[in-house]
Amino acid sequence: IVPAGWWDAAMLHAPGVWSRCGDVWWLILAGTILVALGLADDRFGLPVGFRLGVQFGIAAAIVWGLNTELSLFIDGGWLTKLLSVVWIVAVINSFNMLDNMDTLSSGVAAIIAFSMALVMLTIPDPGTDRPQLLVASLLLVVAGALIGFLFHNRPPAKIFMGDGGSYLVGFLIAVGMLMATFAAGDSGDGAASGWIGSRPHAVLAPLCAMAVPLYDMTTVIWIRIRQGRSPFQGDHSHLSHRLVDLGLSRTGAVATIHLITATCGLSALLLTHVGIWQAIAVLGIVMCLLTLVGILESTQWRRPDK
Predict the structure, then answer these.
(1) Position with higher pLDDT, 92 vs 304
(2) For residue 303, is pLDDT > 70?
(3) Could you give the residue ranges of the DSSP H alpha helices within the chain?
(4) CA 177 to chain CA centroid, nearest Å
(5) How many other C-beta atoms lie within 10 A of the C-beta of residue 261?
(6) pLDDT band at residue 6 under the 50/70/90 scheme
(7) Distant-in-sequence, close-in-space partners of 236: CB < 8 Å, separation ≥ 6
(8) Where are the domains of the chain?
(9) Under 8 Å CB-to-CB from 159, ≥6 apart: which residues?
């Protein structure tokens, strides 16, 4: 619940918002390059090494150029920045790999973007004690665009995201999470800055929200390597395909993944507002949920491609 008084006209002129608006132009430029990369890959089939090289280059430029990195409450220096670059590339490719059924990747991305926007609106910036409007607005724009896209992407789909769309969506969500602050909350007397950093487990909220795309990417890569194939070779070993192999319809598989993602998104929101023991319980619920999914569909992991 957002404390009263935050949503006044003066909030829109908070220096924390306007001082970072210039970053948006760099995000637009970087996103445009990624869209062009995806379109070229859809049209000509670019080598994997080239695609990853451009993605890592864009991610490094954003992390070092905008001084945006993971909030790990440690002085990691170059290591923290390197992990931030890996995070951006991993999120980009997780959404790209998840884009294998109508409304799947776009629906998952919309749920994640919306849930993380709620997190940003309920965790004030420690410098201003106001909602993190810039990041929240970015994520809400992504979620709104995806909701509009879903209307045309529902079966039978009239338009598709393609690599260009999935690259852009993954990039904006990944960078939005890096730009966010997870170090503030309610001190009990309404002052957000009274206990900055007292809930370091809040930094796990993005990982919690992204649990489904990362689970799908990790298991797909593991299955392909286990079968002696390239981890970048397309096949039907994705979570959605494995659920279909269990007997679900394609629509049912997509709806199931959306529901799991929504559960993880709600868990991420809850994670940022509870103490350490409750946070352990929330993370345990997410882990149990993913483990249950893994158990139910693990019998399909070794099945040859159809």
Answers:
(1) 92
(2) no
(3) 15-18, 21-44, 48-65, 78-98, 104-122, 133-153, 162-179, 205-209, 211-226, 239-245, 250-271, 276-297
(4) 7
(5) 24
(6) very low
(7) 305, 306
(8) 18-300
(9) 149, 152, 153
